[in-house]
Write a structure and sequence with these properties.
Structural class: alpha/beta
CATH topology of one domain: Leucine-rich repeat, LRR (right-handed beta-alpha superhelix)
CATH class of one domain: Alpha Beta
Shape: elongated
Number of strands: 15
Order of helices and strands: EEEEEEHEHEHHEHEHEHEHEHEHE
Radius of gyration: 20 Å
Distance between the termini: 40 Å
Largest sheet: 9 strands, parallel
Number of helices: 10
Oligomer: single chain
CATH superfamily of one domain: Ribonuclease Inhibitor
Strand order of the largest sheet: 7-8-9-10-11-12-13-14-15
CATH architecture of one domain: Alpha-Beta Horseshoe
């Protein structure tokens, strides 16, 4: 069942109507548990997701939960405080009035961190919302999430990215219905992304990318000269896709972090990816869990990184479907 929240940071505001457990949902934040919420008179709640008594990263301020924000934005009545710098918006469907409402807020507020989740929107609505970002040019982290990607939508997104050269973190979750995006849309987006000189953190997750898309994805990430952090988490690459991506990774010496978890790459794919990134002297974070590899491969990966100071080495045996019946997905979360 989809859960919907309006998260408001105090004094800064985060707006999020989140569907399902994800990094933006404090109840699912790794290692943290929400403190008992304080009920507010208007029906909202305040709570802290914490670890060791301290708020988790990204939750340093209070969170405000409301349940009627989607109705507000459809009526054009949602308003962000003027001092806002972090906005997370997650709606299913908002219509043209809602898109204009969001755009008006984004033009007025100096947004630095924006995650825009609108599952069901059209190119016109997307153009209205993204066009507002070019007014202030303050956003440095941009997340775009849509299940309606077509060449027309990709063209709108690409044009908007071309006006945001200051972005250093770009997070994408883009699908065409329940499947991966088409080759034409991928080409349009890739052209725009590789023209963004400052992106150091790129995430193309939960997008259903398969082996058929692997050559395009490999060319895309290899064409990002500043890239240090890469996440292709929870796609659908198999062994062949992993091999293709690994070949690109081997030619990216600046890479420091890779998340390739949650897809069926097996022993061969896991070793290909590991070998590629291990060749880079500065590489220090690898996330490979629920990839369907064996205990023997897990041991081999640990051996490859033995003696290297890793910030994180997150590994697990088994396939993605095993995660639903397990506790933590991590084995040896932090290497020595």
């Amino acid at each position: 069942m989809k859960r919907k929240y309006l998260l408001s940071l105090i004094p800064a505001l985060t707006v999020s109507l989140a569907h399902g457990a994800d990094a933006g949902d404090p109840s699912s934040a790794e290692g943290g548990e929400p403190r008992a919420p304080v009920r507010l008179e208007d029906g909202g709640e305040i709570c802290f997701p914490t670890r060791g008594g301290k708020p988790l990263p990204g939750y340093e301020r209070l969170l405000f939960y409301a349940w009627d924000a989607e109705e507000q934005v459809r009526k054009g009545e949602l308003r962000f405080p003027g001092e806002e710098s972090i906005i997370k918006i997650d709606f299913q469907c908002i219509g043209s009035v809602g898109a204009k409402n969001i755009a008006e807020n984004l033009e007025r507020v100096p947004v630095k961190d924006l995650e825009l989740h609108v599952a069901e929107t059209d190119p016109v609505e997307m153009e209205v919302m993204l066009g507002a970002l070019a007014v202030r040019k303050t956003v440095t982290k941009l997340g775009l999430f849509s299940s309606q990607i077509t060449p027309a939508m990709a063209t709108v997104i690409a044009a908007s990215l071309g006006k945001l050269p200051q972005v250093t973190k770009l997070w994408l979750d883009l699908r065409s219905g329940d499947g991966e995006i088409d080759a034409e849309s991928m080409a349009i987006l890739s052209g725009a992304i590789t023209a963004m000189p400052g992106v150091v953190d790129f995430r193309f997750r939960f997008s259903g990318l398969t082996d058929a898309s692997a050559p395009a994805v490999a060319a895309l990430v290899q064409g990002m000269p500043a890239l240090t952090d890469l996440s292709l988490h929870e796609n659908a690459f198999g062994v062949e896709g992993a091999r293709i991506i690994a070949e690109a990774l081997s030619a990216m010496p600046k890479l420091r972090k890779l998340d390739f978890g949650g897809q069926p790459i097996g022993d061969e794919g896991a070793m290909a990816v590991t070998t590629a990134v291990a060749a880079h002297e500065g590489f220090n974070q690898l996330h490979l869990w629920w990839n369907g590899y064996s205990a023997e491969t897990l041991a081999a990966i640990r051996e490859i990184f033995a003696g290297r100071k890793m910030e994180k080495l997150e590994l697990s045996v088994g396939a993605r479907e095993d995660a639903w019946d397990s506790g933590s997905p991590t084995v040896g979360a932090k290497a020595e």
